[in-house]
Amino acid sequence: MARAPLLQLTDIALTFGGAPVFENLSLTIQAGDRLALVGRNGSGKSTLLKVMAGLVEVDRGSRVLSPGDSVGYMEQEPDMDGCATLGDFATRDLGPAEMWRIESVAEGLKFDPATPVSEASGGERRRAALAKLIAEAPDLMLLDEPTNHLDIEAIAWLEERLGETRQAFVIISHDRAVLRAVAKATLWIDRGSVRRRDGGFGGFEEWRDKVWEEEDLARHKLDRKIKAEARWAVEGISARRKRNQGRVRALQALRAERASQIRREGAAAMEMSSGQKSGKKVIEAKGLSKSFDDKLICRDFSLLVNRGDRVAFVGPNGIGKTTMIEMLTGQTAPDAGTLRLGTNLEIAVFDQRRAALDPDATLWESLTGDKAMRVSGRADQVMVRGTPRHVVGYLKDFLFDETQARAPVRALSGGEKARLLLARIMAKPSNLLVLDEPTNDLDIETLDLLQEILGDYDGTVLLVSHDRDFLDRVATTTVAFEGQGRITVHAGGWSDYAPKRRIIEATLDRVPRRKVEEKPEVKSEKPGLSFTEKHRLQELPAILERLEAEIDKLGELLSDPGLFTREPVKFQKATDALAERQEKLAAAEDEWLMLEEKASD
Q: Which partner from 43, 133, 137, 500 sits 20 to 30 angstroms from 339, CA to CA?
């Protein structure tokens, strides 16, 4: 006997503030479904999850949950009233025999249950909410942006957990890599309706574009038909028109159908101006060291950033990526080392904490209150890349409507706050753009547009992100924080660095690699190694250091965006040399690990 649907929504209608959110919405979720819920910011994704959870009362329609089954919902802003610690919140609905689940989940998600709620950041609160949901293990999990504020390691843990679970889940995320890894079908919410596509997320965007293409074609045919029928109505003989009132009524019906169609919301009209050119060398850091109390951020770290580079900083939360960027831009002084900033720098910063936005100010005030953007004597205009613009018109470029202009910033969603901050940044010329977690909360279409803008941007970009897909699309260099103050530099994005990561971690776990000048000795009493192998193990650290240095130099050379056009032969030779040295490095690291394991037997 077939199992009843886990959850069924039928003919759902919902209106907020006079505007319809859903109309005639129906969908079914079966046991074991693994669904991605996608759509533009503001399309109603979070609201739909709340309808599924039974937390929002709809105007019309029915919600039926299979008897005996349970639903759990992870909120973006969980209510922790009455809880002293994050652990109190996470275990609030668990029995004594189930408390162990939180410890296991807390380790994977990297949150401390003992953290007082009053001291917890927004990210820590959301991780606690996610841990609570996973530990409770409902039959249907509803996950609203669970990867925001997770680092790549925690995201990988979540992917593995969702891949192993037998529970059904619906996940909202703008991280393509996550959706490709966990989703087996996609729910697409668009203009109040929901379409379902079975199959992995990888084929969703091609399918979506085809749907839009077919929709545009159907609209074009309808417009042509209306135009032809309208011409008949004007030019037809009166008597014939009298005998063909049915055709006139049909024309009216066509016009009504056309008027009822909801046009797709266009993409944000975001643009950036790189202003005056900076010097060729944007940042030259040599021998930087920095620590706070007992926490080591970096030791003897050097980096050269040239004009046009897109440098991504990756690593676990709290390891010091933001501190490093603050050092590299001159905001924080290193304990040791030297820093030289290039000439003519105009820096624009996208802060992950959105500190530049006053939550009590309106969107209007957020733009006109900035002295650098204000048009003298005009309270309704802002200066956008040297041109006066009406504040409402400029807000519309970033998909805000006129009614939102006088609303407070605190009323905005996470994605809307990100777009408002981008509006502030993009109004002013810059040639060094610092993006600290820009991908949180932005929808896929806006991320695509931001990627295109960065691709056309003539300036330099420093980027912190845990979105692996976005890193691959944008970064030309990856700076990886490995822990223990060790930072490595790699050409390319996340996928170029990831294969080396396991070897580096294994190296750090076994024997932290020492510098060549320390002349490490291999103790002769280690069993299992021949004389030749002992000698080889002794010389490998120096070889590894040399190969890494050569790779870094080649990466710096290839990061010059004009090298291919200016010196194609040199570009090809450097590319071949880089590939050769990367292969040698991988082989040498494998050999080092093998010998080290043999020596420890």
A: 500
